[in-house]
Specification:
single chain, alpha+beta, Bactericidal permeability-increasing protein, domain 1, 2 domains, seven-stranded antiparallel beta sheet, five-stranded antiparallel beta sheet, 10 helices, globular
Length: 480
């Protein structure tokens, strides 16, 4: 990964500054500590992808097909999306050009794979078969990668570094949660038996089934890295003078500025894959914020007040803090410039909101009232957005995109935990009864309560999006 950082720095600084600055590169070729520091800082940037150079996003990482042909089990994963890789910790990075060898290690926590599956065979002693949606949540994985590298002559006549081949080891160090829908065509007793076995014996199951998936992930990341290396001469990768940490951080700042200012190649409006990848990169910026453009940071997100005026229940949430939107990703984005409409399918692995509340009325079937502190934390949420868009002229005289309005659909796909302090003015019996009902019927309660709260979140995101769109002409985003 540090090679990616080096490339971006050299390219950007070389294009923007004078010759003395061009000679500055992140690390001495024998400084492994610097290489590791560089890799740690670069991974979140690299993970967003750089389409101008043919480098796709690594988080979310999209894998069209994974084939598992094991001794007693065959499976196929399709339309797989992997999230969480940008949060991996890179360590022990070593590059030895004399021996043509690259070594690095990764510790990855809370990596999630989800998509569609077909499976058939035996999972150890248990028969298993099915077809449907799947999700695998890996709490902690360790990877050790060793690669052979070589020098190749590029189109520019200079030498470039390339990864020839690699080997790896992977080790699941903490629990893995397997969730496969529609096993045995929906036969609940058979499916639960297999899933219980898999989740209780997660280590053994991982060792048995993991290799095809891990191979696919590392192969994709290596392909992206090699695309970078085709562009930058190897002579520009290293400095003969060891640089200080302060100089490294300064150069990293230059790199970030340059990357965000590179003009991206627009997507054809009919290229749904390109549109979705581009939208994910834009979404990351919309959530992270761009202060110079008035784009606020939205994780954490703040609400002074959210009001819910439902049929039988009224509530106010004040001074609320929301976290989790930085980890959301767009599964699918469709644009129709004839109808001036955009359809967005979005997944948030978790969302948490806390603050103060006032509530009064009926929660489906129970009376409820109170005021105090509250928190709500959800697992996976699915968000569908149907947006009307229009073209507007900005100060640069060019057309820019603007979202006029949107319709939304929200589905809590995993448990939501409700915690409201001081219900019924501290009456524990009544308060515990309502909370037990809410947490025991989280899906129904979420459907009842969610619209005012989720709409408030999405409105802030849409406001940020429109400010972001003012910075990017439509012609730089799409062709149609």
């Amino acid at each position: 990964m540090f090679l990616v950082n080096t490339f971006v720095l050299v390219l950007c600084i070389g294009a923007s500054f004078s010759d003395p600055i061009q000679s500055i590169v992140p690390c001495h070729k024998n400084d492994h500590a610097c290489m590791t520091t560089s890799a740690k800082a670069t991974l979140p940037i690299f993970a967003t992808g750089f389409p101008d150079f043919g480098v796709e996003s690594s988080d979310p990482l999209i894998l069209n097909e994974i084939i598992g042909d094991l001794s007693t089990l065959k499976y196929k994963f399709t339309d797989t999306i992997v999230t969480g890789l940008k949060n991996c910790d890179v360590h022990d990075v070593k590059l030895n050009l004399d021996n043509s060898h690259l070594h690095y290690e990764l510790t990855c926590k809370n990596v999630v794979m989800r998509g569609q599956y077909i499976i058939g065979g035996k999972l150890f002693v248990l028969p298993v078969e099915g077809k449907g949606a799947y999700e695998i949540h890996c709490k902690k994985y360790e990877f050790v990668i060793d690669a052979d590298v070589k020098l190749v002559k590029g189109n520019d006549g200079t030498q470039h570094l390339a990864i020839k081949k690699y080997k790896f080891t992977s080790d699941a160090q903490e629990g893995i949660v397997y969730d496969f829908k529609n096993l045995f065509n929906g036969q609940k007793d058979l499916a639960e038996t297999v899933l219980k076995f898999a989740n209780q014996n997660w280590k053994e199951v991982a060792n048995f089934v993991q290799e095809p998936a891990v191979v696919a992930v590392i192969k994709k990341i290596t392909e992206n890295l090699n695309k970078f290396l085709k562009i930058i001469p190897v002579d520009n990768l290293f400095s003969l003078v060891k640089k200080t940490p302060t100089m490294f951080l300064l150069k990293l700042c230059f790199a970030i500025i340059c990357v965000t200012s590179i003009k991206a190649q627009p997507c054809n409006v009919y290229d749904q894959g390109c549109i979705t990848r581009s939208a994910n990169r834009a979404y990351a910026k919309i959530i992270a914020g761009i202060p110079s453009a008035g784009v606020k940071v939205l994780d954490p997100m703040y609400h002074e007040m959210i009001e819910g005026d439902l049929s039988v229940l009224k509530f106010k949430l004040t001074n609320s803090t929301v976290r989790g939107f930085k980890d959301c990703f767009l599964n699918n984005v469709k644009m129709d410039m004839n109808k001036m409409n955009t359809q967005i399918d979005m997944t948030c692995p978790w969302i948490q909101i806390s603050g103060q509340y006032v509530i009064n009325g009926r929660l489906i079937m129970l009376d409820v009232q109170g005021d105090g502190d509250y928190s709500m934390k959800s697992g996976r949420y699915r968000i569908g957005l149907d947006c009307d868009i229009k073209k507007v002229k900005c100060k640069d005289g060019k057309d820019h995109l603007k979202i006029k309005n949107f319709k939304s659909k929200y589905v809590a796909e995993e448990r939501v935990e409700f915690d409201f302090k001081n219900l019924f003015n501290g009456n524990k019996l009544l308060g515990d009864t309502v909370l037990k009902f809410a947490n025991g019927n989280w899906k129904e309660v979420s459907e009842f309560l969610q619209s005012p709260v989720m709409n408030a979140h999405i409105k802030k995101i849409m406001s940020n999006a429109n400010k972001y769109f003012k910075t990017v002409p439509l012609e730089n985003m799409i062709t149609y």
